[in-house]
Amino acid sequence: MIEGLRQEALASVYGMSTFARSREVWGPEIDGLTNNMSDPDLIYQLGGKLAYVFSLTGAPGRDQSSLSGGGAAWEGLVCWYLNAILAGTNAIVLKQSKKLVPEVISNAMTVTYKNVRTNTESDLTGLILPDDPELISGIYERSRFNEILARNLARTSAHSIQCKTNWNDNAQIPMLWDMVYQFRDVKSHSVRVGVEGFDLDDLLDFTYSFVTVPTGKKVVRPNSMQVHRVHSLSGGNYWGKPSESGVAESISEIFKRVFKRAFQADVRSHIKNLVDNGRISRLTP
Q1: Of the chain's two ends, which shows fewer C-beta atoms within 10 Å, N or C?
Q2: Which residues, in sequence order, are CB contacts of 7 under 8 Å at separation 6+?
Q3: Is this model's pTM higher than 0.70 or not?
């Protein structure tokens, strides 16, 4: 069931026209950076090189974020990378859509403000499902899966991941959403988290993360305003470059910080196992 959902998640990414066009450029470059996705260390380190890969599809004189669909392409690239590493685990990353994200998870994350419901602006939703093969064995119907998940929320983790190409203009959005979620216990008549009898307290764990390229030539420093806005996010702040102390972590670090519970061994050993068993996903068309 989990790998079936993963295939659905990747199919939704591959179906985006901007991603499909970019994939023709990204695939061969990623193969070159990872020795055809056969070197576990290079595959892990790829998270810190995704900004470079992403930049290859920008028009001369313009960065990718200025192009139509650039943000969606970045979201797709991150979704592919996370699922490639998470293959074989009980964790999955889905594009935020009613078709993919289980209804019970969407209900738990829904915020009601003055009786008006609104959903998070996160682009991806990560799930760590209960580590119980019998629980979902043979269950393929979407409605049936949602029912089973609803009965096992206390063993399920959900993780909102917002993906943006531009850091400076978008850092305030995840900061505000994470504040709403983190301070959900504060009594208020106008703001409530969760609908239809479900909320985030029903989950085993919940985090909110920000993943950016980032585009632009401005140097980001530890004291930059956009850094201050996201440095306390419950799920962390990441970019497609190598980790820089006080600024942002490489996307590769999200596996240990957010998805650690999904791995039976350390993430590098898991990647090696995927490679050895021919289960690693390549982006080459």
Answers
A1: C
A2: none
A3: yes
Q: Distance (Å, rounded) from C-alpha 192 to C-alpha 94?
A: 25
50 and 78 Cβ atoms separated by less than 8 Å: yes
List the strands of the sheet with 191-193, edge to edge: 116-118, 111-113, 191-193
Residue for token pair 């979620």: 181
- Whether residue 233 contacts residue 208, with contact meaning beta carbons closer than 8 Å, is answered with yes
DSSP letters, the chain, are -HHHHHHHHHHHHHTSHHHHHHHHHHHHHHHHHHTTTT-HHHHHHGGGGHHHHHHTTSPTTS-GGGSTTHHHHHHHHHHHHHHHHHTTSSEEEEESSTTTS-HHHHHHH-EEETTEEE----SEEEEE--S-HHHHTT---HHHHHHHHHTTGGG-EEEEEEEES-STTTTHHHHHHHHHHHTTTS--SSEEE--TT--GGGSSEEEEEEEE---SSPPP-TTSHHHHHHTT-TTEEEESS--BTTTBEEGGGHHHHTSGGG-SS-HHHHHHHHHHTT-------
Q: 């990414």: which residue's tokens? A: 13
